[in-house]
Amino acid sequence: MFLNNRLIILATLFSLMLFFSAGITHAQQPADFVNPFIGTSNYGAAYPGPIAPRGMASISPFNVAGPQNLPLEKDSRWLSNPYVNENTFLTGFSQVNLSGVGCPELGVILLMPTTGSVETNHLKYGSTYSDEVAKTAYYSVNIDKYNVQGEFTTSKRVGVSKFTFPKGQSNILLNLGLGLTNEEGAMVKVVSSTEIEGMRSVGSFCYNSPEAAYPVYFVAKFSKPAAKFGVWKKPSKQEGVEAQWMTYNGKTRMMDNTTKMVVGDSIGTYFSYEFDKTETVEVKIGVSYVSIENARENLEKETGNKTFDAVYKETYNEWNEALSKILVEGGSKENKTIFYTALYHTLIHPNTLNDVNGEYPEIKRGKIGTTKGTRYTVFSLWDTYRNLHQLMSLAYPQQQSNMVKSMLEMYDENGWLPKWELNSTETFTMVGDPASIVIADTYLKGIQDFDVQKAYRAMLKGADQIENNPLRPGLKDYIEKGFLTTKNGGPVSTTQEYNASDYSISLLAKALGKKEDYLRFKNRSLSYRKLFDKDLKLLRPRTVNGKWYEPFDPVSGANFEENVGFIEGNAWQYAFMVPHDIKGLIKLMGGEKAFSNQLQKVFDIKQFDMANEPDIAYPYLFNYIKGDEWKSQELVKKLVKEYFQNKPNGLPGNDDTGTMSAWLVYSMMGIYPISPGDPIYTITTPMFDKVTIQLDPKYYKKKSIVIEREVNNDGKIKQIQLDGKTLNSYFISHDDFVNGTTLKVIQN
Amino acid sequence: MFLNNRLIILATLFSLMLFFSAGITHAQQPADFVNPFIGTSNYGAAYPGPIAPRGMASISPFNVAGPQNLPLEKDSRWLSNPYVNENTFLTGFSQVNLSGVGCPELGVILLMPTTGSVETNHLKYGSTYSDEVAKTAYYSVNIDKYNVQGEFTTSKRVGVSKFTFPKGQSNILLNLGLGLTNEEGAMVKVVSSTEIEGMRSVGSFCYNSPEAAYPVYFVAKFSKPAAKFGVWKKPSKQEGVEAQWMTYNGKTRMMDNTTKMVVGDSIGTYFSYEFDKTETVEVKIGVSYVSIENARENLEKETGNKTFDAVYKETYNEWNEALSKILVEGGSKENKTIFYTALYHTLIHPNTLNDVNGEYPEIKRGKIGTTKGTRYTVFSLWDTYRNLHQLMSLAYPQQQSNMVKSMLEMYDENGWLPKWELNSTETFTMVGDPASIVIADTYLKGIQDFDVQKAYRAMLKGADQIENNPLRPGLKDYIEKGFLTTKNGGPVSTTQEYNASDYSISLLAKALGKKEDYLRFKNRSLSYRKLFDKDLKLLRPRTVNGKWYEPFDPVSGANFEENVGFIEGNAWQYAFMVPHDIKGLIKLMGGEKAFSNQLQKVFDIKQFDMANEPDIAYPYLFNYIKGDEWKSQELVKKLVKEYFQNKPNGLPGNDDTGTMSAWLVYSMMGIYPISPGDPIYTITTPMFDKVTIQLDPKYYKKKSIVIEREVNNDGKIKQIQLDGKTLNSYFISHDDFVNGTTLKVIQN
Questions:
Q1: Do A292 and A420 share a domain, yes or no?
Q2: Best residue in B77, B193, B211 to probe A by mutation, most A CBs within 10 Å?
Q3: Are residues B168 and B258 in the same domain?
């Protein structure tokens, strides 16, 4: 349980009471260590409000609108979070949100309690707030201006809000204009004094594909009938001669008591009450990406007549069960906190897209599909191919299997595997063709209950189709020359990404007995070497003529500066991003010593960026150099300590839908999936005495695998044993690992 | 059948073929005389497209958008019609329209056929047009730019469009942004390649009550599945720092193949076809003011699998039956044309509001009501209380009964009788409390199958409730002083209107045996006399101190200039608007001679306005002066000839939902309901040898009543006989009239 800032004793007592009344025994469970405030500052882009594991609905306090929140105000900059911990001006509670992404999206359907007469301008009805409490599946806060307490929990597809109002007129606003997304447009219809239905347009993620904007549908049910209700609409101001007669031109209009359908860019509803004593109202909001009817069914099936507390308890239990798949012992409370919060963050996205009846919108099609399992969405694959899916394969293989199946459904629907899929839109954000890596990695780890032949066909299509290939622009150059040239954006980065994908395809081809493809793609995966500048010992871009691009500054491109050659990074941050060919890279660089020096230089000249993915595996690369492994151990320990902390700015930057968090989870367990696609881990010192990973019997023979550490003074690993047998390297295959009983990391 | 402008032989042949193929015998039926082009110029505000009698749906060619249509362009001025006959630039066919009103409203859901690639900007896809054909229940036109023929018919709640496309790519656009209304906002969802559903916001009639804006729902079904379809949306342009990343900011986006719900101020759908030969596509659009489901049910129940021709034939037959309630013989074709077109115009509004299942939106409430009869809407009562409802009571008493019942339902729902009701919104346009007059007039004519006690209570409420009375502002002054003062708008006009209402209430009170009320209201009805200026022999405004308002120019206020004292008129145009107390007025003016002179002066100094209601009965007032009746006869004949003609500008101005047309129908029949509320007609020369009015046996004893004329040279009436007995005045009671057999107007 974590309290932010202005904790008062009353709130503590209250939340303790809630704990006990919910019947949860208070022996510190994994879910009790989660601090949802971690990552709510420093652009972590996490939010402190509740969500169920891989939930469709979530609730976030919304405090990024209004000049009071400058400089972190949503319209004044590129800001991707509905909540910033250091902001102070709250304008509601959004009911669908993205966690840890880099572009503004969702953050809509804003519920806001107020008192007194109805005010519809969020700049006027907004308030400071205090006494925030955030924990697994629960958030509460006091809204200062109105002395209203808001408490929030969710089921998978339903947000549940509970407001405690003082005596007098109280209002619950549902603002469909305000939102984090840059899309506009909503529809609303008050069904009765206890129900509202409608939709809000969202989309254009990362300012792309506005034509793919789509609706999120909702149904809201109130526990008490409103004494008065209505809809407001602020139309856009009309110009021209005729407008002179419109005294109401561009002004907000109050449509009291209406049950008609209302549409507009800036609309909302109010439900008003007259209370003669302190009273609570609960609001359940079911959402769906298919239809209002499905939103209503989601609401009924998941929450029906359940109380707030009952929903909270169920979701808490679901989280606790999920988080208990990895039990850690013998570490500080702080370390347990950052560990379980990170694990929590890896279980938010990809999230559920289908309704309780199985329906979901197919990708890029007008059709509604039906799944029998779970249709997942929010595949930020350029991020997550590096470690998150590997973590899922290990500890949550059923989920990972369904994620792969979802990706194959997208291929069926759309003709292509996903790249950066978001609520069945393909945003085409970032570069590369990462789905192949995720699928190969999953298959090679023994999670094979999907149509691998189809998956392989899909990979080949992405890898080989030169014309009209949305996944691999520049593929012709890549195949013919081995690299993209400067006529494409980020040609070096993209070449490296294609290499990584091709390597995974080669591994899968080999496993499937397709020897020719295996060799072809293995060969393709090494083409980055043509971009290696021996003088600089770095990769650098070539022009269409094959010449080095000039001028070339290896440092340019850090901190998201645009540069020729690289996407979100510079030559230093990409130099070692060939995890499948580190041995080849060592040769290119002139041997182990030169490689190790060059790698060390990245850190020495402060070009290592913990906050972005291309160099995320660098700290582990010293494991490839015999005798230098201690550098990895020290680096990982140092980076964890520096960047991952139990406080709002306790993530190095965007969580990238859990990728940063997955890095932390692995790093604290003492293993890391060093080469995506390769079923292999590299080893460092665990940060707990004992880590027990439950294995899913559907996919694994053993019930669990344990990682233990034996600590000494200098902190360097002296020996690694699997079930008592010494390993002669800092690497272990996935098979050996999951078929073992105990991996022991000995520093004595 | 009427052809506009650029008639070509082919079109004639085609439409003749249509007539025969529809199996209509071509002995000139009443419906064949209707020329829907009448009133489509000179601000008549009629449209030439099809509508069923009192239909909810109608189709109008829409040619008031775009600079090509200046000066009669909708946004450049106050323009209340979807179509202007002299305009040339067509941008679609609107599916709901008002006829003959003075404010822009409806004119939305614009269907437009195009060819070639899809263009969504109406200024670019618009076209000139030719070969217009307009007749009862049918309109057709050639859209020049695309060489597409459009044909249109309707059932009560469904518009049916038939497009004949040339070979190649053809498109049917459904534009939900463009419209005559000043409201904006729409929702659309493509259901399949043959169906679209959605809604369009309309309202704010006469720039009033924007908060009462409401949706018109629709379902569109296409006879052929589209090869491609999609939705376009042009969002409003966002401002601010963040908008710099939105390369698509404010630009139209094409959402191909989408079946998601889309909302916005400027949206539409396209359905595209690839034809390898000339092909037709029929589009049926069902509408509803209740829900999309009801729109769909309306469509299915009314038109189901019927062909365009079948729907046309049914609606034609319904019109012919309705128009045949009054059969005219022995007149010119031109006179029959203007007569039946006028009668047609009186059968458009009030129109049907309820869906086929009986549901309709209750007035000013969020509720959905259900009617077993017909719920009517569009009560422009300030206009229609003067003659239109009297015509309904005579020839369509069942409709008039349902109109009264609808008004009483509004009282039940809203607490007040209607004033200017439009699609269950009270627009409060104009002044006075005219519902009482309509109801009393109906009851006193023997149409009594409604709850007259409730009606009476409703009238009293409007007449007596001083505080918060939306119908009669200024009532306190009116009751205390006998008149409104200049602190209210149009105090003289309003006093006169209240007098007229009070007179009707007194008549009903008398009939109901409420003697005290009878005397009280009769007395109240004469209070206009306090505003009579003996020097000017005119009514003029008084200030709050009771003094004449200065300066006073009796001529000021003509042509809709604003003036102190009068609404839509000046002192001359209101001086005689006390039809219930003409004898009193004669006294005030100093006797018959002075009265007659003053009345003549109105015409002599050209202050008579044929285009507006206050003085609409003036031409008949000479009938009150013995010996001067010939002046009425000549005036009426002259005015008909001058203002009512078989051409687009053949109405004197706004038809005012049929009021001008009702004046013409009565005037051509030779009788006129001179004093609203009084069941009495005054008599002039009929313009046909024989007029046979069918009487509804549910309300009348006789099957029909005949009016005959015997013509002489000087055109003056010498004698009037009812069933052979000479009348000794130019007035006849409704009872005497309908219980007679033949009213003979003899000029010999």
A1: no
A2: B211
A3: yes
Residue A60 pairs in a beta bridge with A94
Residues A341, A470 share a domain: yes
Q: Which residues pair with B268 in a beta bridge?
A: B175, B232
- Residue A515, judged by CB atoms within 10 A of its CB (0-12, 13-18, 19+), counts as exposed
Domain count, chain A: 2
In a domain, B370, yes or no: no
Which among A182, A190, A264 has CB closest to B238? A182
What is d(CA A17, CA B157) in angstroms, rounded to the nearest whole number? 60
Taking only the tens place, the pLDDT of each residue in A567-611 is: 989 999 999 999 999 999 999 999 999 999 999 999 999 999 999
Residue B368 lies in a domain: no
In percent, the amount of chain B with pLDDT more than 90 equals 88
Cα of B257 to nearest chain A Cα, Å: 6
Looking at the predicted structure, is the pLDDT value of residue A20 above 50? Answer: no
Q: Are residues A313 and A437 in the same domain?
A: no
Q: Of A190, A254, A366, which has the smallest distance from its Cβ to B211's Cβ?
A: A254
Query: Would residue B720 count as lying in a domain?
Result: yes
- Smallest CA-to-CA distance from A730 within A638, A639, A631, A644 is with A631
Contact B185 A236 (CB under 8 A): no
Nearest to A595 by CA among A571, A565, A628: A628
- Residue A391's domain comprises 324-746
A690-742 tens-digit pLDDT: 999 999 999 999 999 999 999 876 779 999 999 999 999 999 999 999 999 99
What chain A residue is nearest to B267 in terms of C-alpha separation? A185
Contact B62, B93 (CB under 8 A): yes
User: Does residue A460 share a domain with residue A422?
Assistant: yes
| Residue B369 forms part of a structural domain | no
CATH classification at residue A52: 2.70.98.10
CATH number of the domain enclosing A589: 3.30.2080.10
Contact A263 B361 (CB under 8 A): no
Instruction: At A643, list the tokens.
Output: 């960047």
Please tell me the distance from the alpha carbon of residue B180 to that of residue B98, in angstroms, as a whole number: 10
Min distance B62 CA to chain A CA atoms (Å): 18
Residue B78 in contact with partner chain A when CB distance is under 8 A? yes
Enumerate the residues of chain B whose CB falls inside 8 A of the CB of residue A256: 211
Structure confidence by residue, pLDDT tens digits, B344-397:
999 999 999 999 999 999 997 679 999 999 999 999 999 999 999 999 999 999
Distances (CA, A) of A691 to A34, A330, A741: 17, 9, 12
Q: How far does A469 lie from chain B, in Å, by closest CA?
A: 19
CA B251 to chain A, closest CA, distance in angstroms equals 10
Using the Cβ of B75 and the Cβ atoms of chain A, whether some distance falls under 8 Å is answered with yes
Contacts of A238 in chain B (CB under 8 A): 182, 184
Residues of chain B contacting A78 with CB distance shorter than 8 Å:
242, 245
Tokens read off for B380: 């422009």
Q: Do A255 and B213 touch (CB under 8 A)?
A: yes
Cβ separation A255–B204 shorter than 8 A: no
Of B129, B114, B164, B467, give the one whose Cα is nearest residue B271: B114
Report yes or no for ipTM above 0.95.
no
Question: Looking at the structure, do residues B680 and B623 belong to the same domain, yes or no?
Answer: yes
Structure tokens at B247: 């390369």
pLDDT tens column, A203-212: 989 888 899 9
Same domain, B409 and B269: no
Buried-exposed string B324-341: b where 16+ CB fall within 10 A, e elsewhere: ebbebeebeeebbbbbbb
B348 in the Ramachandran plot: left (φ > 0), alpha (ψ -120 to 50) or beta? Answer: alpha
Amino acid B464: pLDDT: 98
User: What tens digit of pLDDT does each residue of B647-675 get?
Assistant: 999 999 999 999 999 999 999 999 999 99
Looking at the structure, tell me whether residues A293 and A347 fall in a common domain: no
